[in-house]
Amino acid sequence: MLKVIASILLFSSMASAEFVGFSHGNELSATAISGTVKVICSGFNGSGSAIYTCRDMALNPAAYDHFVGPQDSRTDRVELVATHADGSSRSKTAEYDGYRGKSKEAFNLWISTIFQKPLLEAGTNTIRYRIYSRNIEPMVEGTFVANVKRGAPRQCPTAQYTSSDISDCNSQYSICQRYFDEYNNCQ
């Protein structure tokens, strides 16, 4: 009886480790999006207007995603090291829920700012994962490939916003982010 239970546990843990990668999949598409926004600002601090041409590169299906890996209740941290097509690499770590076999936080796959850099780049990304227990040597490690292909460019319709804050007429970044959010990245 004990052998039967051990066999069931072994096979169920192997079945849960069949897919390793990002929860939305490892085939991604980077698409150039663009559009024009007119902003009219008037309020207690002045008035003005601006016309912005917004451009971005959207990652589908998601710019942030969870890592999915093997289930092992002893594990609590995952490290991902992405080696890009040009040979450069980037690493990121997150807490790991070993019971569910999933990172507790989503990894930044694509967004680049002065405060954060993405894990992936366009092309083939070979991801080496290491799953730890209490920051000791890795309990599980392996690799998977995430491909980022170029998608066809998309254009959002022209939009107009009215604001009671003059600073919106001087803030292209925040207006363009709002615009792309409202138009679901021009889809």
Automatic annotation (TrEMBL):
Residues 1-17 form the signal peptide. Keywords: Signal. This is Secreted protein.
